Amino acid sequence: MDVEAKRIMALSISKLYSLRTQRGGLRLHRSLLLSMTVRAARDIYHTAQLLRDAEEEQVVPCAPEAAPEEPMEISKDTPKEVAVKPKETLQEDKENRCASEQHSRKRRGKTALEADFLPLKKAKMETDEEKQHFQGEVLRTNNGNSCRQTETLTSFPSNRAVVAC
Amino acid sequence: MAGAGGGGNDVQWCFSQVKGAIDDDVAEADIISTVEFNHSGELLATGDKGGRVVIFQQETENKSQPQCRSEYNVYSTFQSHEPEFDYLKSLEIEEKINKIRWLPQKNAAQFLLSTNDKTIKLWKISERDKRPEGYNLKEEDGRYRDATTITTLRVPVFRPMDLMVEASPRRVFANAHTYHINSISVNSDNETYLSADDLRINLWHLEITDRSFNIVDIKPANMEELTEVITAAEFHPHQCNTFVYSSSKGTIRLCDMRASALCDKHSKLFEEPEDPSNRSFFSEIISSISDVKFSHNGRYMMTRDYLSVKIWDINMENRPVETYQVHEYLRSKLCSLYENDCIFDKFECCWNGNDSVVMTGSYNNFFRMLDRTQRRDVTLEASRESCKPRQLLKPRRVCAGGKRKKDEISVDSLDFNKKILHTAWHPQENIIAVATTNNLYIFQEKVN
């Protein structure tokens, strides 16, 4: 389930990214729906992570390569079905896990990940709480909510929409 | 049942006409983006991605003979919107026509509103079949005559000429929307209209272009707290103070402009509790309402979300009175539809003249007719293969799984590039206009 969640997250982020280059400007509705999907997928992934980490505490840590494999297989329903388009993400993830079992934010390999997914402008950062839980993958999105491109107050000097009060 | 505007499954539909290029190579500019009959049904307007409006007119000859089908022929074509560039924000503004709405006819000329993402225009379409001839100072071709050669005086007279249909922009309503306009709706008072974008709804007077009133604003103070956007809005057909707007969360709000100037607080909120068994990653997306339409009698409104059509009684807020599944077999395919972006398709819906049947589009060039009175539904197809004059449309069936029967098509064989997003029903007769990607199909009730 979390593999599916991660795949959907990756897919959504790439869609969000491609929205920026679309003709006609940023589509607020679509960005919102995509970011909601990212959040839903991230919540599932995060929950699955927590469950897995709880299980890992009971498992005796083996060689670094083996350790991540085991818990993943337990929680995965279909271990073969890893249809992740951007293959680096999974590898990055394993790399990050192998390095340490701690809940620390991983920086290694983040740059490779960034190049693929992240929009050129980095908007909102994850909050500190979320950072602690979010091991392995750093996702920087603007949640689709930030219409910073369109949000300049001076954008309509001749805006004559009158707010009736 | 000719002329009744009703008809459920006892109505047989047959092919009448198809408009547009035949070849499969579709130019993006030719993609139809909106279809709308005028109030009498005599005129049918389409807008496309290239910013053009094409108006078809129903031929009035042979109407007395029921065997003859009245045909729609091109009446006027004009470029409504051009691509623009917002230099301040470095954004291109698409010329695609999002919506066309006709004004009720008041005199010989016809008026319609057309809108793209940012600008609404009022167009006057008028006929000219006479022209003045016999000017004193000008030649017939317009060149001025040498004043010294004029020795007589005459009164110019009107002489008949070949019919010319002229479209001229009478008003341009610009610079009032930060976000993308998704709806326009003419008020029953025939003086005002509303325009809605993702976060705001503005009220305009048809005569005044330099000012509009903002009547709904759902923009949060902090954009990162945004949870829903406006997806469609419409005025009540008879009550000039009432309008509704739908949201991406699947809710509809009815507002009364008499209650306050700013209608952020709704008078009624229509929302159906979510079925927890249907929860998935994509629940949010498929519950987003893509279209809302009042019934002609004003008692009901219809909403279209990705998988269903719902009919609401405006006096009952907690659940719809009727729900119809458009293509339930897609529920298990949502992930693939998310991957190919089809899950974001915005289908429209429409009522027939007497509110007994509703219609909406689907994939594979299928469209659905949902009969409310007989509680029956049928799936039909707009295809080049059924294009012989008066050819009867055969009901189509989709096989969701298991053994596929003869004449059924399996879900995996559906062509998701062939989608019918825009449909329109003649206000009085059983004539429907169905837009595939770049073709407009006109179907009529089969009359024996």
From TrEMBL, chain A:
Disordered: region residues: 64-112
Residue stretches of biased makeup (Basic and acidic residues): 73-103
Protein family according to the UniProt entry: Belongs to the IER family.
Identification of the protein by name: Immediate early response 2b
Lineage: Eukaryota, Metazoa, Chordata, Craniata, Vertebrata
UniProt gene name: ier2b
From TrEMBL, chain B:
Signal sequence, renumbered to the chain: none
SUPFAM superfamilies associated with the record: WD40 repeat-like
GO-annotated molecular function: protein phosphatase regulator activity
Record flagged with keyword Repeat: yes
Keywords: Repeat, WD repeat
InterPro entries: PP2A_PR55, PP2A_PR55_CS, WD40/YVTN_repeat-like_dom_sf, WD40_repeat_dom_sf, WD40_rpt
Single GO cellular component term: protein phosphatase type 2A complex
Family to which the UniProt record says this protein belongs: Belongs to the phosphatase 2A regulatory subunit B family.
Assembly and interaction partners: PP2A consists of a common heterodimeric core enzyme, composed of a 36 kDa catalytic subunit (subunit C) and a 65 kDa constant regulatory subunit (PR65 or subunit A), that associates with a variety of regulatory subunits.
PANTHER family from the UniProt entry: PROTEIN PHOSPHATASE PP2A REGULATORY SUBUNIT B
Identification of the protein by name: Serine/threonine-protein phosphatase 2A 55 kDa regulatory subunit B
Phylogenetic placement of the source organism: Eukaryota, Metazoa, Chordata, Craniata, Vertebrata
